Amino acid sequence: PYSRDLHLFAAAAKLALADSGLKYDGQNNRIGLVVSHENPGFDEYTRQIWRALEMQPANGHSRLQHIKGLYAQVEGAGYATHSFVLLQQLTLLLKAHAPALMVNNACSSGLYALEAAAQWLRNGHAEAMVVVCGDSPRLLTRYLWLQAAKTCAMDGIMRPFDLQRSGFVLGEGAGAIVVETLESARRRNAAVYTQYVTGAFYSDAWKLSLPSVSPHLYHRALQEAVERSGRKPSGIDLVVPHGAATAIQDRYEAEGITRVFGKNTGHPMVTALKPFTGHTLAGSSMVELILTLIGICHDTVLPTLNRTARDEKLGFEPVAAPVHHRVKNWIKTATGFGGFNAACVFAQPEGGPM
């Protein structure tokens, strides 16, 4: 049977393809696929092992007999935790025959996946790429580990960049987009929601769950992305940061943002969107990118929810209520577990989405 992960990813990809209006021959096409998930199938496999252990205690059997008996109950589920299995299943469901890639850069995966898709297109390996990212964190041990790492909100409320922030709340879901060249989209008279301009990426090469503060690699990614885009900092209307609502991570991000754009300027606007969905881990960057576009299509900047008290040390105040504004240039950033930093610059087509 298909896994819960596959159902989520297939639904997101199918919705994106339907919205794009992209038509292609299922037997002969140059449609590619980039997928991001932290641990496909792992939660389900772990649950099956626990169930098997409960149903089949050792009861005097030899160790080998006991292992064989347990394996008979979970046969195949372990192999499904290999990420390429989910990738292969999606290529089959979508009938996609151009390059396919599995990406796992923790919470920053969506932006890394977008850059990979853009590179395939720029190098002429595909006509269009489907990028689908998500996660289904429903395993108790994952919550316990995150609690031990002091990253979960004890009151169940995410407050990014707020004085009372205490961590994130996990969310389940997936998001998908179709990426193609602007020329291709215009030939098809397709809706263009945004243009991906460029990105910059750096790895801390340090701790698993804490940022490396002194090298300022998040700041470097953000600064470099702005420079590569050909925009000046004053030309950026909106920044959508990672905003995991943990004390250290938010302060680290705030320092990077204010280093590039200045303190307490009110420009660009900053909004963190995880409170809308929870932290969807490998899906978070993509899900938040899509949420941002939904707002931009209505000339609206979505707010950072659950604001209670301003943290003066951060140097900016996130958007606290919906703002009617025509966004032209904007940035999505991420700083995930493992120290994977990413910043991507987007530009809106003249006259808005078309």
Helix-strand layout with pairing:
Elements: H1 4-20, E1 31-36, H2 42-55, H3 63-74, H4 83-94, E2 100-103, H5 109-122, E3 128-135, H6 140-148, E4 173-180, H7 182-188, E5 195-203, H8 217-229, E6 238-240, H9 247-261, E7 269-270, H10 274-277, H11 284-297, E8 300-301, E9 323-324, E10 329-336, E11 340-347
Helix pairs in contact: 1-4, 8-9
Task: Kindly describe this structure.
This protein is 37% helix and 17% strand. The two termini are 40 Å apart. It is an alpha/beta fold and 354 residues long. The model has no long low-confidence stretch (mean pLDDT 92). Helix 1 (4-20) runs parallel beside helix 4 and helix 8 runs parallel beside helix 9. Helix 9 links the parallel strand 6 (238-240) and strand 7 (269-270). A five-stranded mixed sheet has the order 5-11-10-6-7, with helices on both faces. The chain has a four-stranded mixed sheet with strand order 2-1-3-4, with helices on both faces. The chain has a two-stranded antiparallel sheet with strand order 8-9. The chain is built from eleven helices and eleven strands. It is globular.
Assign an overall shape.
Answer: globular
Structural class: alpha/beta
What share of the residues lie within helices?
25-40%
Number of strands: 11
Helix-strand pattern, N to C?
HEHHHEHEHEHEHEHEHHEEEE
Largest sheet: 5 strands, mixed
Rg computed from alpha carbons, rounded to a whole number of angstroms = 21 Å
Number of helices: 11
The overall pLDDT average reads 92
Strand order of the largest sheet: 5-11-10-6-7
The proportion of residues in beta strands is 15-25%
Please mark out the parts with pLDDT under 50 across 5 or more consecutive residues, or reply none: none
